[in-house]
Amino acid sequence: MLVATCVLSIIFLLESCSGDRFSHLFSEDVSNISFPDDFLWGYASAAYQVEGGWDADGKSESVWDYDAHNHPDWFPEGQNGDVACDAYHKTDVDIALLKYQGVKAYRFSIAWPRVLPTGRIDDINEKGIQYYQDLISKLKANNIEPIVTMHHWDHPRVIEEQGGFLNESLIIPAFLEYATLLWERFGDDVKWWTTFNEPKQTCGGGYDYGSVSPNRQDPGRGGYICAHNLLRAHAKAYKIYNEQFRAKQNGKVSLVMDTSWYEPASDDPKDIEAAQRKNLFNYGWFAHPVVYGDYPEVMRERIAERSRLQNLSESRLPSFTEEEKAELKGSYDFLTINMYSTELAKWRDDEPAGEPSIYDDTSVTTYQPDDWEKTITSWFKVVPWGARREVVWIRDNYGDDKGILVTENGYHDDGNNMTDLGTRGRYHKLYLSNINDAIYKDGVNVIGYMAWSLMNDVEWYSGWQINLGHYHVDFYSDERTRTPKESAGYYRKVVTTNCLVDDCEAPPKR
Ligand SMILES: *[C@@H]1O[C@H](CO)[C@@H](O)[C@H](O)[C@H]1NC(C)=O
Ligand SMILES: *[C@@H]1O[C@H](CO)[C@@H](O)[C@H](O)[C@H]1NC(C)=O
Ligand SMILES: *[C@@H]1O[C@H](CO)[C@@H](O)[C@H](O)[C@H]1NC(C)=O
Ligand SMILES: *[C@@H]1O[C@H](CO)[C@@H](O)[C@H](O)[C@H]1NC(C)=O
Question: Edge-to-edge strand order for the sheet containing 364-367?
Answer without folding.
Answer: 261-264, 342-347, 364-367
